[in-house]
Amino acid sequence: MTFATPRQVFSLFEADVRTRNRNAAERRFRLYGVIAITISMLALALLLFTVLDNGLGAFRQTFIEIKVPLDPARLDPSGTRDVEAMKKVTTIGYGKVIQAGLVATLAEAGIATDDSSVRDVFNLISKEAPAQLRNRVLANPDLIGTTIDFRAFASGRVDGYFKGRVSMASAELDSNISPAQLAIADEMKAKGLMGLHFNWDFILGPDASELRPEAAGLGVAIIGSAYMMLIVLVLSLPLGVAASIYLEEFAPTNRWTDLIEVNIANLAAVPSIVFGILGLAIFINFAGLPQSAPIVGGLVLTLMTLPTIIISTRASLKSVPPSIRDAALGVGASKMQTIFHHVLPLAMPGILTGTIIGLAQALGETAPLLLIGMVAFVRDFPASPPEGFFDPASALPVQVYNFTQRADPAFVERASGAIIVLLVFLLVMNAVAIILRRRFERRW
Amino acid sequence: MNTFKITAAAVLMATTGLAGVAVARDQIQIAGSSTVLPYATIVAEAFGENFDFPTPVVEGGGSGAGRKKLCEGVDENTIDIANSSSRISQGDIDLCKTNGVNEIMEVRIGYDGIVFASEINGPEFAFTPADWYGALAANVIKDGAITANTNKTWADVNPELPAQDILAFIPGTKHGTREVFDVKVLEEGCKDTGAYDAFLKAAGDDKKAAAKSCLELRTDGVSVDIDGDYTETLSRLDANKNAIGVFGLSFYQNNTDKLRVATMKDIVPSTETIASGEYPVSRPLYFYVKKAHLGVIPGLQEYIDFFVSDDMAGPNGPLAAYGLVSDPELAATQAAVAAGTPMGPLN
């Protein structure tokens, strides 16, 4: 027997070995947590920094401001100011008009251009400029004969020079720009004929080919994405909510509903490209819907978003306390009245949050769109809905992918700029989800 | 229960209703080779600007995939034009026939050069196909016998080359560019070094087996397949300054400030040397038009006429400015396109 052992004395002020060990373990665990958070924050900060660092430049663009005399002999040879007849003059003709205007503007500003050919000077202006001028003149034939102030994009290399991407040394080796051209650009900037401005066309304008990276914009992609999100919302919210109410409140618990539940949970984890293959087979090849159209993209993304919405809706229906249901049934409401008057309104914040998170996921999806022809060069804006749903369009994540594939270095900046726009969209959607939850959530 | 039924019925009707709408397509749809893609977008853009037709929709996806899509059928929701960086195969033509696509027009738009380039600050390289074979092949000829390739530096292959470690980024096997590299560089080099004759002897006069042996590459990491596009090759080159990358001429021309191009058989690659046939590594680029869609899809004939016009595909046009080697026989192509001549059997 060990009764004789003297009682051990503890001090409250001095921790014994085991307490010290326990406390140390806790401190270590907290440290691990802090380290984990720091690493993830650093990774996020690095990601955001590189994207912002690369992409912010895309929102500002170098513009050239010149005076262009609109020569009637060249732009309206028939002299009738008839738009149909004037359409015969192509952008090549308008290019010559701009070239003349540019040379005259430079001469007026006293910038010597003798040591470089007129062609070199003209190459400072984007290839987009003749098209812009042509559209402006065709929209307003009365301009012909007058001299207009014309603001055009500077070419991608000149823009790169002012943003630090191109230098005199690199221009020496570059086949697309020469130091002499950059010297003229410098002078033009000093005279105020050239400068960096905020570029709305990057957000609102259509995509452009590789010959004019400076003109490429996200307009068509943003509209395409918006159309798709609209379709996803209109189709998947009622479908998803109806399915979850039935499964959660009305369906009997048997083998069939179990099977359905397991399948819904599995569907949520199916790789998105599978939905793309399905969309190609059903919507395009079977139903005969057009390729590259937001309607097909929207339908495919609806299929992809449905499981997410069903799962989150069921979770929020489940979280409504049974006492609410009991009380409603107790005062004589029917089951349907109980659900639609009491349970559903209380579950609404959760449903909306789940829906918006599902939409945000769908917004960033690229893989299924690859298969239905949305990874394409689309320059024309789709019409307004509902016809516009059937017109070809691009989508934001697809546009990022497209920009990264192109050879001209100016597209690197634009790809990051497109990522920024996409991130802003996601941020806004998530913010709306949080606000909805905060506003309408009730706790018991 | 009622509400659920009504909602479900409404949604179902909406979905099937949408699916039932048959929409006449008014813009041209194009898919195929990612090498031809930039040229096609340049033409599509100019076409949309200057004509009253909508801008064509141009997709990438690869030559083979584009041709398969073209051959899917003659419905309006199949594509009108397939871009291709290699010639259509008999298999594709047969597939087209089974799906009712009987008449295809073949249009050769010009030539594309394949260049070898290294980091701008590195040494100059002057290659021959034999050098590439000696650097990358799994088996080479040494003292008249077939031995495993142990060359470490380019100087080991050819004393006139810099003593730089061999490291090459070549296009992956799914690229059309790789085919050209195989045929015009590796096979060529294999024959030049005499390895082909040795393989032929070893295989007992089996020409196919000998040609296959020529294309076997080392697996010790000096030859890296790039399955992505040229932008990936460029960034890999940026990370490995002593590597050599394989690029398309137009990509190189857009990045001359970062890349130093190597000569092949002492010829500097340029649109001129490729057009004259002096520079050996080049290939024709094509697009294939579904004749059944001419007159059905508005603007299709105008688009292909515009594509091969001198304003676009000519030696001073925007395509040449981007790096396309203009076809010396463009006039014949223009005439064939205007007449709508379908392609004959492959020869």
UniProtKB/TrEMBL annotation, chain A:
The keyword Membrane applies. The keyword Phosphoprotein does not apply. The chain crosses the membrane at residues 29-52, 226-247, 267-289, 295-317, 343-364, 415-436. Residues 222-433 form the ABC transmembrane type-1 domain. It comes from the Bacteria. Keywords: Cell membrane, Membrane, Transmembrane, Transmembrane helix, Transport. Pfam families: BPD_transp_1 (PF00528), DUF3333 (PF11812). CDD domains: TM_PBP2 (cd06261). GO terms for biological process: phosphate ion transmembrane transport. GO terms for cellular component: plasma membrane. It is found in: Cell inner membrane; Cell membrane. One of its GO terms (molecular function) is phosphate transmembrane transporter activity. It is a multi-pass membrane protein. Belongs to the binding-protein-dependent transport system permease family. CysTW subfamily. This is Phosphate transport system permease protein PstA. It comes from Hoeflea marina.
Automatic annotation (TrEMBL), chain B:
Residues 23-311 form the PBP domain. Keywords: Signal. Residues 1-24 form the signal peptide. SUPFAM superfamilies: Periplasmic binding protein-like II (SSF53850). InterPro entries: PBP_domain (IPR024370), Phosphate_ABC_transporter (IPR050811). Coiled coil: none annotated. The keyword DNA-binding does not apply. It comes from the Bacteria. This is Phosphate ABC transporter substrate-binding protein (PhoT family). It comes from Hoeflea marina.
